[in-house]
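Lab meeting, item 3. Inverse folding demo.
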C-alpha cells in the first residue's frame, strides 16, 4: 500500500521525522517511499522547508545506506577546495553584520578576559575556535586605549580544522599588522598539527610563569569526543588560567547519540531555528547564506550519519549550557559576567533587527548568559576561574 502524507504547513519536519522513524525501524519500503517523496519536494535554493528537506535528506540517505563517513569526507574536500582567506573573511564579516550569533560570544568573552587580566603586564590568550581571529581586533583596541601601560599580548591560536589551516598564515600577518597599528606589543603562535583537541598538550602551549593566562573556547568543546571532554578541561585547569571563557550553541546531540530518532528530532529542532534565522537575516539571493547552509549540511551528515568511533577526527556533539555547567564545575568555579559586560552585550543586540535578546539562566545548576532568537536560547556564553 503506497504511503500517503498530506503536504501542508511545516511539511518538511513531518516528512523528515517520519523518515527518521522508518530508518530506526528498518522499514525499507517506507524508507524508499519517503526518500523519493523528499527528493521530489526538496531544493537547496527554495524556501525554508525545501532547504531543510534538502539538507536533512542527504543525511537520512547516508544513514540509510551507511555512507555517512564517505559523504562527509567528500563534502569537506569540496569545501576546502573553494576555501580562501577572502571568501572566509567575507562570509564571517557578513554574518556578523546581519546577526549577533557569533558577535554575542565575542563581546561577552572579551569583556570577561579584559577584566580578569586587568593590571597584568604580560598576557597570554589561548584561542581555541574556528572564528579566524575575528574576535581579537576589538580586544587589541581595548588594550591600546587602557590608561595604564599597554601590556604585551601573546596569542596562541589552536587550529584543528583543516579548512582553517590554509588561511592562518594570512590571518597571522593581518593580526600582526593591526597590533602594530594599535601600538600593542604582540606575538602570535599557531598550533596547527592536531587532528582533534584531545591531542593538545600543556607543553605545546608554551605558557610562561610570568604570564597571565586566559583560555578562550568558542565552539571548540563540542568537537571533542564526549569521553575526552573531562580530560581536556583538566588540561585547561593545569595551566592555572585567570579565566576560561566558553561559548557553545544550545543543542544536545550527546545524550541522545545512541537513540537515532531522539537525536534526529533535536538536530531538526536546532537547525530549523538556525535556518529560519538565516532566512530572516539575509536577502534571498545571498551567497553567504548559501555557504552557511552548506556548512550546516556537512554538520548534519556528521551528527546523524557518521560513526565517530571509527573516525579519528573531530566530532559534532553539542551539549546545552546546563550540561556544560555540570562538566566545567568539576574543575572550575563560574564567574558571573559583570554589569558592564552585560550592558555591552545588550548594546550589541540593539544594533540588530528585532527578535534577539539576552537571557539569564534559570535555576542553580547553570551560569553564564544566553543569546535568544524569538525567545528560544541559541548560544550560551560563560566565564570560569580555577
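The presenter then showed the designed sequence:
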Amino acid at each position: 500500500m503506497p504511503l500517503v502524507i498530506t503536504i501542508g504547513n511545516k511539511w518538511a519536519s513531518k516528512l523528515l521525522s517520519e523518515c527518521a522513524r522508518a530508518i530506526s525501524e528498518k522499514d525499507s519500503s517506507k524508507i524508499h517511499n519517503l526518500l523519493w517523496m523528499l527528493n521530489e519536494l526538496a531544493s537547496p535554493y527554495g524556501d525554508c522547508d525545501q532547504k531543510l528537506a534538502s539538507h536533512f535528506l542527504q543525511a537520512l540517505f547516508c544513514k540509510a545506506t551507511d555512507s555517512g563517513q564517505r559523504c562527509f569526507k567528500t563534502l569537506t574536500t569540496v569545501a576546502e577546495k573553494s576555501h580562501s582567506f577572502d571568501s572566509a573573511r567575507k562570509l564571517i564579516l557578513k554574518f556578523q553584520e546581519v546577526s549577533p550569533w557569533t558577535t554575542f560570544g565575542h563581546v561577552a568573552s572579551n569583556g570577561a578576559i579584559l577584566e580578569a587580566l586587568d593590571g597584568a603586564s604580560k598576557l597570554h590568550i589561548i584561542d581555541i575556535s574556528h572564528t579566524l581571529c575575528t574576535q581579537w581586533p576589538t580586544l587589541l583596541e581595548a588594550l591600546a586605549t587602557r590608561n595604564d601601560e599597554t601590556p604585551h599580548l601573546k596569542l596562541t591560536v589552536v587550529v584543528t580544522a583543516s579548512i582553517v589551516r590554509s588561511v592562518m598564515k594570512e590571518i597571522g600577518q593581518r593580526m600582526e599588522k593591526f597590533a602594530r597599528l594599535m601600538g600593542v606589543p604582540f606575538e602570535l603562535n599557531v598550533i596547527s598539527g592536531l587532528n582533534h583537541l584531545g591531542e593538545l598538550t600543556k607543553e605545546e602551549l608554551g605558557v610562561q610563569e610570568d604570564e597571565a593566562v586566559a583560555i578562550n573556547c568558542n565552539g571548540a568543546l563540542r568537537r571533542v569526543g564526549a569521553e575526552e571532554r573531562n580530560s581536556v578541561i583538566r588540561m585547561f585547569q593545569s595551566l592555572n588560567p585567570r579565566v576560561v571563557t566558553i561559548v557553545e550553541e544550545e543543542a544536545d546531540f550527546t545524550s541522545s547519540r545512541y537513540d537515532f530518532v531522539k537525536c534526529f528530532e533535536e538536530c531538526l529542532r536546532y537547525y530549523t531555528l538556525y535556518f529560519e534565522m538565516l532566512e530572516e537575516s539575509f536577502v534571498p539571493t545571498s551567497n553567504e547564506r548559501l555557504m552557511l547552509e552548506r556548512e550546516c549540511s556537512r554538520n548534519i551528515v556528521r551528527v546523524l550519519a557518521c560513526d565517530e568511533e571509527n573516525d579519528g577526527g573531530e566530532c559534532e556533539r553539542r551539549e546545552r549550557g546546563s550540561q556544560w555547567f555540570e562538566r566545567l564545575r568539576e574543575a572550575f568555579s563560574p564567574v558571573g559576567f559583570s554589569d558592564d559586560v552585560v550592558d555591552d552585550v545588550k548594546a550589541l543586540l540593539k544594533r540588530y533587527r528585532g527578535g534577539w535578546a539576552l537571557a539569564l539562566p534559570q535555576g542553580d545548576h547553570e551560569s553564564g548568559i544566553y543569546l535568544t532568537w524569538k525567545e528560544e536560547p541559541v548560544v550560551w556564553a560563560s566565564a570560569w576561574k580555577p
